[in-house]
Amino acid sequence: MALMITDECINCDVCEPECPNNAISAGDEIYVIDPKRCTECVGHYDEPQCVSVCPVDCIPLDPTHPETKDQLQLKYEKLMAES
User: Fold this and answer.
1) Which of 22, 38, 49, 56 has the highest count of CB atoms within 10 angstroms of its CB?
2) CA 44 to each of CA 29, 55, 70: distance values in angstroms, whole numbers, following the listed order
């Protein structure tokens, strides 16, 4: 599953630089995660880096983008091939 940032986000700027897939960007009011680029850090780390640094715990799984670990791995491989 891709991750999402909820409206509890305080715009602290710590999550964006931690994302190895450049999936996080500043939105109109809060940071947003591009589900096409989010792999939950599969392929890079054992856990999502944005979640590990978020001081307000506002980055849950996005229920509208269900994906298995295998699907996330394939997405990671595709992203790496594009770069």
Assistant:
1) 38
2) 28, 22, 14
Q: In this structure, is residue 7 part of a structural domain?
A: no
State whether residue 37 is helix, strand or coil.
Answer: coil
Amino acid in the structure at residue 21: N
Q: For residues 30 and 28, what is the distance between their CA atoms, to the nearest angstrom?
A: 6
Number of other residues whose CB lies within 10 A of the CB of residue 32? 15
From CA 31, how far away is CA 19, in angstroms rounded? 12
Environment class of 5 (CB within 10 Å of its CB; exposed 0-12, middle 13-18, buried 19+): buried
Query: Is residue 23 domain-resident?
Result: yes
Q: Which CATH number fits the domain that encloses residue 24?
A: 3.30.70.20
**Which tens digits make up the pLDDT trace of 10-28?**
999 999 999 999 999 999 9
**pLDDT for the residue numbered 83:** 79
